[in-house]
Please model this.
Amino acid sequence: MALQIFLTTGHYLCSMSKEIVVSGIRSTGHLHLGNYFGAIQNYVKMQDAYECYFFVADYHSLTTHPDPKDLKANVFHVLAENIASGLDPNKVALYAQSDIPEIPELYLMLNMMAYVGELEKVPTFKDKVRQQPDNVNAGLLTYPVLMTADILIQKAVKVPVGKDQEQHLEMARNFAQRFNSRYGDFFPEPQVFRFNNDAVKIMSLDGNGKMSKSENVNATIYLSDDDDIIKKKIMKAKTDAGPTEPNAVMPDYIQNLFLLMSLCSKPETVDIYRNNYNNCTIRYGDMKKQLAEDMAAFVHPIREHAWELQKDEALMRKILKEGAEKARIGASKTMAGARKLIGINYY
Ligand code: TYM
Model:
């Protein structure tokens, strides 16, 4: 988008043909370390060099029918935790998905090009069918189509997401191609983006799958957890009797502890424990104590800043409103173009 000037809180944001970036996080609770290291850390690094649109995916969270009060609180948690993690609302558009009416409009159009058979085969849909057999709603089925609309509405080319979202991005590219081949070249094909192509996947501390907002809260470290809770959770993390031979392959739950340590502790600290592992002298209790301390120190300033921000509801609302205003500039242009191509332009 060439030479665009956005009016923000007394600041002007000037973007000269920067590449467009979009990403979102569902409002299903406080953010956790997986969200931070898998996504937000990349958002923060991208905010100067790219034209960034980061949003709270509140429509996506409706698939699990949240209580309205919780939904609202969660939108503010996600917003505050994004900012406390380093996102600057003067540099990026930070908004709620539901504040952009062009998104559901594009979603509707794309739904006409998405086939039930292909949507039923998406692994995340199949997981949900297994997890919540009593609530297999159409929103779950068309979840990747709504994600595609979130991305294409800004004509984004880069999408910073964790590994778990890669399949959805592949579908977004398919839907963009399908639209283009039917109506003419209009949407770019969005690509997953990570610095150094490094996909960080944080596992749950009990070793069962990825760390997630709603599953096993005791094995998930949230950016809202206080120091004591963090220490308790880390001390309970799954370990075993330790390696029995030098340089043994690490089980994935031990690898996860080392990964967390490499993200929060000093490199020298990680080296010490890695050497201890390799020569079979590691004491997991000591390692967890050190990790807990370093993790608590890491989360502490983010938690405190997020709480401060959330106390100022007027500020939170202002940020969302201004973010939506910025996001709607591109969104309305995209929809005008898409309507015209489809033939829905009567006046
Ligand atoms: P969500 O809310 O589940 O997660 C938000 C971001 O955090 C990443 N993530 C992880 N990364 C590493 N390890 C983990 N344990 C972990 N858990 C989550 C996710 O990969 C994601 O980047 N469908 C999306 C939200 C969305 C979206 C979009 C994203 C809606 N529309 C458009 C990009 C573009 C989701 O549920 O993310």
In short: The chain has a mean pLDDT of 94.
